[in-house]
């Protein structure tokens, strides 16, 4: 009896401590912690494989990288179709584990192929692996957030998504540290097998979340609906992403974000290559930026994101990153220096991970369930990579005409301004759609599908 009292006392102390950091309800706590383990496992798995992917991409020839990115875009479209079929025919408690186990099986197959491959075959396996990991990254993270926007209400999303995203940041740090410390001592095959095991841990977390889903609802009918096949058409995710004005603007938000990110990436590469001639110094600079980004992101996610969303609302929180981007590109246009690019990158990436990404996920809490899985998957993966392609080719074209870092920054400012207007419209539209939910639904977290008119 004393052990039980001690256990309940520890749980109560943990709940009170967490309550000082974020606004969490007692019944939400188990789901919150399983979400943390889920995204920690997924991001650790990816960041274990990311350095292996990058090394294989370079080994396959730097001049081939643009084709690898194009292959990734095609791969995104192809993977969305069988996933949409699973969503149509199976409940989420089945199609999510099946998807993750498919990717885990792929990881094992790559490990086996690398074990038996000769040096020439390894180059081609590396090229395929580069494309596959680039697809894997966005897809497995998108599925995680698909489940979250299905589990939590709009009101819960505002309070909890920032803190949940902190689990992703910690997973990224741990996964990268594992590969950095072991890469010189163990075969990449061992690291790949470890990444596959982490996906199985994510599947276990999904099963626990499926069992906990009814505890987030006070309307049993809503919880029962969530474990039925969603139905609909295989192509409905694609058609809805373009036929619904709301989802079309969500797509535009992500497209403009990706374009500006790619422009900034190319500017960073150019400025860093001019500032450092030593490759080791360049690597140290990038590592320092990553450390600052992850540290700032984690602090904001743990202590501020939920409060920012509640204080500012979805519209202003969503507009923060476009506004910051306008200021940052303005500074680069005036002074395209190493300190300017470093400051801009740290603030922008931290603002994306800690504020923009959790807020963007809240946008999907007010759309029908079919859109939360099918349209969201298409937007998070294909539309995002499409933005990369538009940004990369756009920079190449403007550079061909002689544009330098300052000129590229000036070109990016009106793109960011359009993005800002888009963010304000989206945020206000989401808030109106959230108000259409019954007050009891918003308070309890029970979910009712939005109508087609709502989604518009």
Give the topology.
Blueprint: H1 2-21, H2 29-59, H3 65-89, H4 92-116, H5 119-151, H6 154-182, H7 188-212, H8 220-226, H9 236-243, H10 245-275, H11 279-303, H12 305-334, H13 338-362, H14 369-400, H15 405-435, H16 439-444, H17 452-455
Helix pairs in contact: 2-5, 2-6, 2-7, 3-5, 3-14, 4-5, 4-7, 5-14, 6-11, 6-12, 6-13, 9-10, 9-14, 10-13, 10-14, 10-15, 11-13, 12-13, 12-15
Describe the protein.
The chain is mainly alpha-helical and 456 residues long. The protein has one domain (25-455): Growth Hormone, Chain: A (Up-down Bundle). Helix content is 85%, strand content 0%. The chain has 17 helices and no strands. Helix 3 (65-89) packs across helix 5, helix 4 (92-116) runs antiparallel to helix 7 (188-212) and helix 5 (119-151) crosses helix 14 (369-400). The longest helix is centred in the first third of the chain and has 33 residues, at 119-151.
